[in-house]
Design a protein that fits this description.
Layout (H helix, E strand, L loop, with lengths): L1 H31 L8 E4 L5 E8 L5 E5 L5 E5 L3 E2 L2 H12 E3 L2 E4 L15 E7 L4 E9 L5 E6 L5 E5 H7 L3 H4 L14 E6 L2 E8 L2 E6 L3 E2 L2 H13 L8 H12 L2 E10 L2 E10 L2 E6 L5 E4 L1 H7 L21 E6 L2 E8 L2 E4 L2 E2 L2 H12 L5 E3 L9 E7 L4 E10 L2 E6 L5 E4 L1 H12 L12
Antiparallel strand pairs: 1-6, 2-3, 2-8, 3-4, 4-5, 7-11, 8-9, 9-10, 10-11, 12-13, 12-16, 13-14, 14-15, 16-17, 17-18, 18-19, 20-21, 20-25, 21-22, 22-23, 24-28, 25-26, 26-27, 27-28
Length: 443
């Protein structure tokens, strides 16, 4: 009996061991398999591979987006338009990598059940190598959280998220460049503005803008850049009705001229004419067809005179500290020299706080207005600031005129009107510069 019981126990142990072995083996095999609801990628390209996109929608003309010879995206159908590069890039990114939520059928026999026989949206993606992939988007899923999709030549039917469909469902108006002026800001060399019965022209030398018309003058670079920004941001509304488009054309025709701008870059010159009718502004551009209603911000931004763009600051050393300052003020002489990080006068080190106060006053030393040529008294203040390692020397002569002052930069005929307080504050800052305290003695 004991031998028989031992044999039975042995058989049971072997059976259990075999069961555990095969169970573990089966689990390992299942773990190695992809899950049943795996979501494979439908398309896996890179943006740089794509050279053309053809968006086809029911009851709408085809929208074709292609790269031109300059490497820019351009609409070639239904009409030729320059594309909004950011919007075009987003569409290309959406089309390059398309991920599914899940596979509905591995081999669909009737795709019409999913709206894929005559899809509501088809995007043909062509690569630089000449291969075209046709992605079809059909009906929405019953939960409206996505849509059915398939790739031509692949029998599988997938579901994709709603954002995949919306990222691909683009029209001409979505992709078209809506700017009224399409100049390249980095290559802009000239801007001409006719406003307030003045003809002004700005020219760029490297990164610095100057006034070249009606005569050479220092320009306030920030004001010129703000003008360019407003021109760059001027856009047309492509969603307006035909009736509103006619109102815009009528408003422009009977409006009062505000300004005419000409912008010149490497590709040529474009013109924008702005008029005001009651409280509304309308614009006509040489770069696009039609008349368009524009913002009051653009209208008021162009309605400026020459003095609005002139540089009112007397010194151009900007944020870089000068190397040397000399000032003769009603018989008093100040001479400050920078060596390394410290300032000195007559060989004595100066207090950095008081010097910084003077530098701030010089940096912000600005005119309150511009003065027409007039007789100027002998200067009472003579200021010379040397900067840029001695390469820039700016000399300003300041004369008393009534209760205020008039200043003149040595190299210019222009006269700058200065408030008395501005001059007094500068004089006080110079007189307040003091020696640095002696170093504390260590115990």
């Amino acid at each position: 009996m004991r031998l028989r019981g031992l044999m039975i126990a042995t058989v049971v142990m072997v059976a259990l061991a075999a069961g555990v072995y095969f169970s573990n083996k089966q689990k390992s095999a299942e773990a190695a398999k992809p899950p049943a609801d795996a979501s494979p990628k439908i398309l896996a390209l890179t943006d740089s591979e794509i050279s053309k996109l053809d968006v086809k929608k029911k009851d709408a003309p085809e929208t074709v987006l292609e790269k031109n010879n300059a490497g820019k995206w351009q609409l070639t159908a239904p009409k030729q338009f320059l594309a909004d590069q950011e919007a075009a890039g987003q569409l290309v990114t959406a089309a390059s990598t398309v991920a599914s939520d899940r596979v509905v059928e591995d081999k669909a026999s009737d795709v019409s059940a999913y709206g894929l026989k005559a899809p509501s949206l088809e995007v043909d993606i062509t690569t630089k190598a000449g291969k075209t992939s046709k992605l079809k988007i059909g009906d929405d899923t019953p939960t409206n959280s996505g849509a059915y999709a398939m790739l031509e030549g692949d029998p599988r039917v997938f579901t994709v998220a709603s954002y995949v469909k919306s990222g691909l469902d683009k029209s001409v108006n979505d992709l078209r460049d809506k700017r009224l002026l399409t100049f390249d800001q980095d290559k802009l060399s000239r801007v001409e503005l006719v406003a307030k019965k003045q003809d002004m022209e700005f020219g760029r030398d490297k990164d610095q803008w100057q006034i070249v018309k009606p005569k050479p003058l220092r320009a306030d670079g920030l004001q010129v850049e703000e003008l360019i920004r407003k021109l760059k941001d001027a856009k047309m509304d492509l969603t307006v009705s035909d009736e509103d488009a006619k109102k815009a054309a009528s408003g422009f025709a009977s409006g009062t001229p505000v300004a005419t701008v000409k912008a010149t870059d490497a590709s040529g010159t474009q013109q924008l004419e702005v008029r005001k009718n009651k409280d509304d502004y309308y614009a006509k551009s040489s770069a696009v067809d039609g008349v368009h209603k524009v913002t009051a911000d653009l209208g008021t931004g162009l309605d400026k005179g020459l003095d609005d763009f002139r540089n009112k600051k007397l010194f151009d050393f900007g944020f870089n500290d000068p190397n040397k300052i000399e000032m003769h003020n009603n018989g008093k002489t100040y001479a400050f020299q920078k060596t390394g990080e410290d300032w000195f006068s007559n060989g004595k080190k100066l207090d950095s706080t008081s010097v910084q106060s003077l530098l701030d006053k010089l940096r912000d030393f600005s005119a309150s207005k511009f003065v027409e040529f007039t007789a100027v008294a002998a200067p009472s203040i003579d200021l010379t600031v040397t900067s840029n390692d001695g390469k820039r020397v700016e000399k300003v002569l300041i004369s008393k005129q009534g209760s205020d002052y008039v200043a003149k930069r040595e190299t210019e005929p222009s006269l700058y009107g200065l408030d008395a307080k501005t001059v007094d504050d500068l004089s006080k800052a110079a007189s307040d510069v003091k020696e640095a305290p002696p170093p504390s003695k260590k115990k």
